[in-house]
Amino acid sequence: MGSTDDTIDSKLSERRAFDETKAGVKGLVDAGINKVPTLFHHQPDKFDKASNLGNTCHVIPVIDLADIDKDPSKRQGLVDEVKEASETWGFFQVVNHGIPLNVLEEMKYGVKRFFEQDSEVKKELYTRDESKSFVYNSNFDLYSSPALNWRDTFICYLSPDILKPEGFPLVCRDILVEYGKHIMKLGISLYELLSEALGLNPNHLKDMGCAEGLVGLGHYYPACPEPQLTLGTTKHSDNDFLTVLLQDHIGGLQVLYQDKWIDITPVPGALVVNVGDLLQLITNDNFKSVEHRVVANHVGPRISVACFFCTGRRASSKLYGPIKELLSENNPPKYRETTVADYVAFFDAKGLDGTSALTHYRI
């Protein structure tokens, strides 16, 4: 018994020591380590990685949003594409989405600038206090996850309290504000397509409050000396309604499809869109919130920016359950109702342990 307790104490003190550096994974790399510390070692995954080179069955859909509102017949085609992708993959990429390329590039540079600024300046912002408008740390589930991920992250609320940008660091403040506005506009367009794909009024998901909040996550994945031993992000699904992800050219994002890991190859100028747990819940499993991960890489840093349509932990009494219009005698509700804050709190407490938080809410 004592040895088990000693092991737990040792692991906890290792994690605490890493946390107290306030320098994250980048701090380890900057210190010149050439071995991945054991607290980052992951168990091998049981699922195969598929080679999807040249295999069109295993390439997630790329949907072209050009002229979305100008041609009714094209729009119906887009609705059909979004429906198919959301029911089967839970993921798709969008091109001609209306966000200028220079804005996408500046957003990536903004994240890079933040993480590569003087470490003493950055340490001032390192915190685990999630009530702050800007939170920088490494591994939100540092004290609960089975193994740590090879990445550092900042999280900030881009909506509804974008009125307080002075809480954002100067090195990325302007672009965060601008990018958030672009993503909110795109998100509303996507919600219209998703609503129509469910056979509902185009404004249905927006009117439910699915676009009320937007949380931005800037991820920095340093080059890893032993990528086979760790992961950039553990297998998980997202605790939101919808995610819009900007990734750089390095790649590493994989989606679990038919028990195989499939690479989501970066497409220049594209954004990755995926269904979150809360959208699967309210659509009663019509749309799939699919597990995904990020592998570690010898090459780096990899930069990505994930925007979560979700009010996060912000208090709200609004309950979300399966949409009544989608239910019938043959399709009864599969989930109990929850508030967004309760779902997010349960997800965060559980950490990225490789299991789905949705099972907790299944009837």
UniProtKB/TrEMBL annotation:
Mark the transmembrane ranges: none
Entry's Gene Ontology molecular function annotations: dioxygenase activity; metal ion binding
Keyword list (alphabetical) reads: Iron, Metal-binding, Oxidoreductase
The answer to keyword Cell cycle applying to this record is no
Report the PROSITE patterns cross-referenced here. FE2OG_OXY
Using the record's annotation, list all stretches that form the Fe2OG dioxygenase domain: 210-312
Matching Pfam families: 2OG-FeII_Oxy (PF03171), DIOX_N (PF14226)
Reported cofactor(s): Fe cation
Q: Which family does it belong to?
A: Belongs to the iron/ascorbate-dependent oxidoreductase family.
What PANTHER family does the database record attribute to this sequence?
OXIDOREDUCTASE, 2OG-FE II OXYGENASE FAMILY PROTEIN, OXYGENASE FAMILY OXIDOREDUCTASE, PUTATIVE-RELATED
Q: What is this protein called?
A: Fe2OG dioxygenase domain-containing protein
